Amino acid sequence: MSDLIKYFREKQMKESSEAILHARCPYCSMQCSMELIEERIVKRNRFKAKPNKQDPTSEGRLCMKGLFAHQHVINGERLKTPVVNIDGEFVSVSWELALEVIAEKWQDLQAEYGKDSIGVYGGGSLTNEEAYLLGKFARVGLGTKYIDYNGRFCMSAAASAQVAVFGIDRGITNELSEIADAKCIILAGTNIAECQPTMMPYFRKAKKNGAFIIAIDPRETATTKLADLHLKVKPGMDANVVIGMLKVIIEEDYVDHSFVQERTKGFAEVKEQVKTVSLATVEKETGIAQADIEKAAREYGKAETGMVFTARGVEQHASGHQNVRQFLNLVLATGKIGKYACGYGAITGQGNGQGGREHGQKADQLPGYRSIENKEHREYIASVWEVDESELPRKGVSAYEMMEKIDEEEIKALFVMASNPIVSTPNSLFVQKALEKLDFLVVVDMFISETAKMADIILPCTSYLEDEGTMTNLEGRVVFREAERKAPQDVKHDWAILCELGRALGKEKWFSYESAEEIFNELRLASKGGVADYYGITYERIKEEKGVFWPCPKEEDNGTRRLFESSFMTTDSLASFTNLEFQYPKEAPSKKYPLVLTTGRVMEHYLTGVQTRRSHDLVQRSMDAFVEIHPNTAKKYGIEEGKLIRIESVRGTAVVKSRFTEGIREDTIFVPFHWGDLQSINRVTSPALDPVCRMPEFKVSAVSIRPVHQQQKEEEKKYKVLTG
Ligand SMILES: Nc1nc2c(c(=O)[nH]1)N[C@H]1C(S)=C(S)[C@@H](COP(=O)(O)OP(=O)(O)OC[C@H]3O[C@@H](n4cnc5c(=O)[nH]c(N)nc54)[C@H](O)[C@@H]3O)O[C@H]1N2
Ligand SMILES: Nc1nc2c(c(=O)[nH]1)N[C@H]1C(S)=C(S)[C@@H](COP(=O)(O)OP(=O)(O)OC[C@H]3O[C@@H](n4cnc5c(=O)[nH]c(N)nc54)[C@H](O)[C@@H]3O)O[C@H]1N2
Ligand code: SF4
Ligand SMILES: [Mo]
């Protein structure tokens, strides 16, 4: 070897290094943990993610999103300093100046228009500590009643239904390991194979053990392929299918009478009501053959053990709350809950979808799932926060309604942390117009998202590799997110940003924390005695025990792995049946808008795609939005495969490419919502809200479709400009 080569090799060795970072995927509710090996070779970094075999939930699996999650962290578009929008251009400024301007502007607006002129909009990607602190920041830092978060669009229907029926909302009532022994499993409106991919093996195991699996979904997916029976329901008709099933269960007597007698109330009414239900009518309305409804009911009814899972397919409707309650009727009638391999699960979505909805980001909620309208709850939290009870605001409004308040100019400034509402709210063209009316928009993000683009100031935050804290996964297990990568110099943790803003507002007394753990310890106290009681959970325990299940009121408590073994958490310990009321989508197809549009996800992208569209390995696998359409429907509307299609509703238009599949109902089309601008399907979707939980009807809008013939050239040009 020549001396020169030897010299370079040695130099390279000296400059190369390998670091192993412990991390937890930032995306879905499985919260898979991993080791990320960061190899530094000369000046280039190479990353490789390896699943953590000791993870009790993922059992040592990672999906492609987890494998490539680090790519967005090192993406060159990451914000490195605060930026201010000056005539449409973002200009770097110091933290000091940014914080000063924000505090001044907020104080001026509140002086002129009152405390409630500022809205706060949070997200389910925030750690428990940050979600908690954001709630405290709105109520104590700003004193506004207007706070809500993206989880309103996600879990609110199942959460409100479980609270009404069981007295508590903890996603899944059992730990995942019990799935293997469930003999009948209903998967309703859930595409686990693409949305929680590392959960699939639990269902495969169950199937191997002889489980009968029933899927309810308007289209074939990688999840429905696992099913023994697939009910291809008309979107929005789930409650009616389940009412049909309940009739069979009651009339053929698959009822667990002693359970119903001892643990529930309201069954007598339901028993009367099923007499008036006609299965022939159910078949006509739902598109599911009577024989299939009977088969599904019998299989679930006769099975010794069974579990029912719902997700957004059932929940994202203006009748989402009622839809879920009908599924809970099935669970109660057959007594399949509170026992091994028997239970219900609303499969949580975002990384901290569960914890994010327990500690005060919701408009009507205080930490520990307490109510902001309950005097005792207010007094307790006021004592923890060291404020007077009378100073705590009352309840505000839900996420979409906050947009309406902005449109009405009642809210003048918005503070967004961990959400991209321009792409994720229904009827998004209206939302965009509303946000344009704001006097002042501040966004905290890692990137200039579609929403951040409209901001006056963007504050840059750290990523999942840099920001430690706790997350509550879909099982209700509180886990620790290690963050071993050093944060970029001028970028701050979300919780630290809230502390700085608190200080700038002269409220440092309430916002001076040195670590996430210090915030967690306050959260524990604030949740103490509430429904979501975390008091017995400490950082030490979480680390030692690989997560602790809530409720966990004492440090000596093991945490609750299975809920409702002996009683429900309602005031009388009983679970309530719900009256049978048929439910219909708010928007029916018409002559002008003859098709039903439903929306959802694909494996490769996460929500509005701000992170995954900046991960090249994921983008390569899935570049653009598309519409899944049956070839017969396509033919009827003169649509060819792989061409640009205009999808239109009374609210707006989106342009996406066609993708043929015989797996979807002929009256339905499906579009994923991970893309922005003209490809964003929320320009089209309906903002009809559920009367109880205020969930929008993302899953049913009446639309028309047509090929982009004449204007094809201009559209394609526009499309290219918009999508790069
Ligand atoms: N890859 C990926 N994974 C994710 C996410 C992501 O964006 N990408 N997001 C995470 C989040 S926040 C969430 S909330 C979850 C969501 O997880 P899911 O709820 O499973 O996802 P969706 O695709 O929205 O909807 C699930 C299924 O509902 C079906 N569906 C549509 N309308 C109806 C209906 O009326 N009735 C019934 N029964 N089914 C219907 C759709 O065809 C779809 O297959 O996923 C989490 N995981
Ligand atoms: N049509 C249709 N629309 C839907 C749905 C649907 O099924 N169909 N599903 C709904 C559901 S279930 C959900 S959950 C919502 C989600 O919708 P959004 O709340 O808009 O979700 P994200 O795309 O995750 O937006 C998060 C933003 O926060 C940033 N971010 C990520 N992590 C952090 C963090 O730790 N801190 C900060 N400050 N920023 C962070 C990201 O870069 C991104 O810009 O969309 C809803 N919209
Ligand atoms: S996206 Fe979900 S399933 Fe995939 S690695 Fe991340 S946490 Fe696990
Ligand atoms: Mo979600």
Overall mean pLDDT stands at 96
CATH class of the largest domain, named Alpha Beta
Rg, Cα atoms, Å: 25 Å
Strand content: 15-25%
Report the structural category: alpha/beta
* First-residue to last-residue Cα separation: 47 Å
CATH topology of the largest domain: Rossmann fold
Numbering strands along the chain, what is their spatial order in the largest sheet?
A: 5-4-18-17-16-6-7
Point out poorly predicted stretches. Answer: none
Q: Helix proportion of residues, in percent?
A: 25-40%
Instruction: Give the bound compounds.
Output: ligand MGD, iron/sulfur cluster, molybdenum atom
Number of distinct helices: 25
CATH architecture identity of the largest domain: 3-Layer(aba) Sandwich
Q: Characterize the overall form.
A: globular
Described by strand count, sense and barrel closure, the largest sheet is:
7 strands, mixed
Can you walk me through this structure?
The structure is a single chain. The protein folds into four domains: 72 residues, N-terminal domain of TfIIb (Single Sheet); 250 residues, Rossmann fold, CATH 3.40.50.740; 191 residues, Dimethylsulfoxide Reductase, domain 2, CATH 3.40.228.10; 129 residues, Barwin-like endoglucanases (Beta Barrel), CATH 2.40.40.20. 32% of the residues lie in helices and 18% in strands. It contains 25 helices and 28 strands. Strands 5-4-18-17-16-6-7 form a seven-stranded mixed beta sheet, with helices on both faces. It has a six-stranded mixed beta sheet with strand order 24-26-25-28-23-27. Helix 6 crosses helix 15, helix 9 runs antiparallel to helix 12 and helix 9 crosses helix 13. The longest helix is centred in the N-terminal third of the chain and has 19 residues. It binds ligand MGD (2 copies), iron/sulfur cluster and molybdenum atom.
